[in-house]
Design goal:
This protein has 378 residues and is α/β, with parallel strands linked by helices. It is 34% helix and 18% strand.
Length: 378
């Protein structure tokens, strides 16, 4: 069975789907790995390194049309779906809730489409959870970008000229990205506060040395996969009022709040921004899914009342080497889990909880229950 790996063609994308160590791991399992020429160029890995790991180097068209499994990082261009081998398996981030036409094309051409966003949040799936691995790096990058754009330093310093007080950082949303943002800001010496609608994360915040901000929103909670549930309009207003006071005293605010499959909630309003100190910085980590900050713009720095709003997209791509290593490992672990070495076959076990969660189309139909229910409601 051949695995094909394609170069990313999305503008500005530096990450690659598979690195040589993962190629070597898959080849040792008995799989043939074919990569598109110059696959690793963006992270300074040449074709020779892939060949040494056991890969075959070919052109894009050959890889597309001859592979039983195709690996990418981002979703494919629509025109390439028809070029895939019939009944082949396509694995990448797909954004299936917001890409109905793309999903329909996979079904039309009898491609089994696996969405890496839909890997379940479970212990057994942890090693293949690409959404978490990339979010972890995004949280780190958000703090580094804020530090670069700030005109202050993070740590407290006692100097002959006097004492410099530590920077105050407020992280909103304590998922994987938020926790890494907290940890990174603490390592740099900041005084960190954090808020989340899920009171259950308070202990995690405190374990990192940060203060958990409590705002009484009434009944909140999280989904079975650990995501925050959507708030009512009244709860959102209470949250904004409570956070406004913390934002006003903060030097850096980092927002990470996203709703799986839906537009990100606006939690920082223009009025809240007006109440912040001149020179403060807001990093909107949800800008690619609509944004948490009123007025933020994708891949732009906006200034409102002397407050800088950073809307950088593709944060993991800023550290493309390590982001590629982690995503590559996630893919290799996914393949390894369902590879039947004895029969030389990739087993799409439709009864397995991981496959149930991430397989969107199969045998010419949309089979994922979550996607089907989402469409029916729409």
């Amino acid at each position: 069975m051949q695995i094909g790996v394609l170069k990313e063609i999305y503008p500005g994308e530096q990450r690659v789907p598979l690195t040589p160590p993962s190629v070597e791991k898959l080849v040792k399992k008995g799989l043939c790995v074919a990569i598109e020429s110059t696959l690793g160029q963006t992270i300074n890995i040449n074709d020779e390194e892939y060949k040494k790991a056991g890969a075959v180097v070919a052109n894009r068209q050959t890889v597309l049309s001859s592979s039983e499994i195709v690996l990418r990082l981002r979703k494919p261009p629509s025109e390439e779906i028809s070029q895939l081998k019939k009944s082949s398996i396509h694995i990448s981030f797909l954004d299936p809730f917001n890409e109905p036409e793309l999903i329909d094309l996979f079904a039309k051409h009898s491609i089994s489409a696996v969405s890496m966003e839909m890997i379940p949040r479970s212990t057994i799936a942890q090693k293949m959870d690409a959404l978490s691995s990339q979010a972890n790096l995004a949280g780190y990058v958000a703090v580094v970008l804020a530090a670069e754009r700030s005109n202050k330093i993070f740590p407290m310093m006692n100097t002959p000229a006097g004492t410099i007080t530590p920077m105050k950082v407020f992280v909103i949303g304590v998922g994987v990205a938020g926790l890494q943002a907290i940890a990174t800001a603490k390592r740099l010496g900041a005084r960190v506060e954090a808020f989340d609608t899920r009171p259950v994360v308070e202990e995690q915040v405190q374990s990192l040395g940060a203060k958990f901000v409590k705002i009484d929103l009434g009944e909140t909670g999280q989904t079975k996969d650990g995501y925050a549930k959507a708030l009512t309009a009244e709860q959102l207003q209470k949250q904004r009022e409570g956070m406004a006071k913390v934002c006003a005293n903060s030097d850096i605010v980092i927002t990470t709040a996203q709703l799986f499959g839906r537009k990100a909630p606006v939690i920082i309003t223009q009025d809240m921004i007006k109440g912040m100190k001149p020179g403060s910085i807001i990093v909107d980590m949800a800008v690619e899914s609509g944004g948490n900050v009123e007025g933020s713009k994708l891949n732009e720095e906006v200034q409102v009342n002397s407050v800088k709003i950073l809307g950088s997209g593709n944060l993991p791509g800023h550290v493309a080497v390590h982001a590629s290593q982690m995503y590559s490992s996630n893919l290799a672990n996914f393949i390894d889990t369902f590879w039947d070495a004895k029969n030389k076959n990739f087993n799409l076990d439709l009864n397995h909880e991981i496959i149930k969660g991430c397989l969107i189309t199969h045998h010419g139909a949309i089979i994922n229950e979550m996607i089907k229910n989402f469409r029916n409601k729409g």
